[in-house]
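Q: My labmate handed me this sequence with no annotations at all. I'd like to see what the chain might look like in three dimensions before we decide whether it's worth expressing. Could you predict it?
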Amino acid sequence: MNRSDHGKTKTKIGRREFLFKTLASSGLVSRYLGSPASLLFAKSLLGQAPLDNASSLKTKELVTSNVDFFIRNHFTTPKISDEAWRLEIGGLVSKPLKLSYSDLLLMPSVRRPSTLECAGNASGGAGVGTAIWSGVPLGELLQQAGLKPGAATVVFHGADSGEGENVPPGTYFARSIPLSKAMEPATLLAYEMNGEPLPAEHGFPLRALVPGWYGMDSVKWLTRIEVLDQPFKGYFQDEKYVALGAHGERRPLAVIQVNSKFLRPSEDEEIRARTYRVEGVAWAVEIKIARVEVRVGGGAWQPANLSASPAALIWTPWSYEWRVPSSGQYLLEVRASDEQGRSQPESRDPDRKDPYELNTPHRVNVRVP
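A: Here is what I predict for the chain of 369 residues:
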């Protein structure tokens, strides 16, 4: 993808390409081709070039590999057979749907990059990543099911359940989003991540993808989607992922806050060069990043260079050429601002009594010998 293409929302993916890709990964290609075959061979029969991760989209420097993408699950990864699995769409709909994995693979699909962040990700933490997701727009399936008057809330029900974290027995992971968010073209039911079928720990066979909102709303291992006319009441909706004030005020979490982090240098890194290229990423996700600034040793904030045209739904790489001073210990800080003028706060709101939305500037200490 060229820099100017980051804002595009729809790109068609060949259905046969993905079907053969899925069959190859499950060891079933030889059954269809009559002999052992690699994914490359299968695609050559279709006259298609193999997909090299994200390289065909030219965003390799922006994409987190599947193996490096953060994992945050409340329960043990469920074991799901794609042959037996079904997705049900019901509630306030006139034509309830029951779809198999193959049904979804054969539907018109889209592919787009999107940044996800864990709601409890610490400043500069590893709980954020960008992948290229493929799937079916949720809004199209809801329209196919026929929304009834009064529909207001869409609930994602996952297959994962368990004990611990004060979870009531028998609780399955479930979250809801407003119907308006569910109908946005960027909201997907995703079955592919970086050109591969979803890894088990990332929600195989199907997960929600709710761009711009914290990762808990992109529910994994989907089994059921329920349309309601009222807010959803559930443990992971009302007890978890809620902003708490000093006097008991409660606010549900949703939109990812503006944030940034260093990719280099790392904490306690020793820097010997006289000029050092500091690098990182910044994200506001629902809207574009406007600027990134770096501060050294408590001095003035200095503008960093944005290495790509900022776009919504995906992080923006940045860099800063640091002229390294004399030997000593130095504190480097980074902060970002978005197009609406929101900036990362210097410090955490002391009235917050929850572990979420941690977006103070990322700070690293380095040594110059």
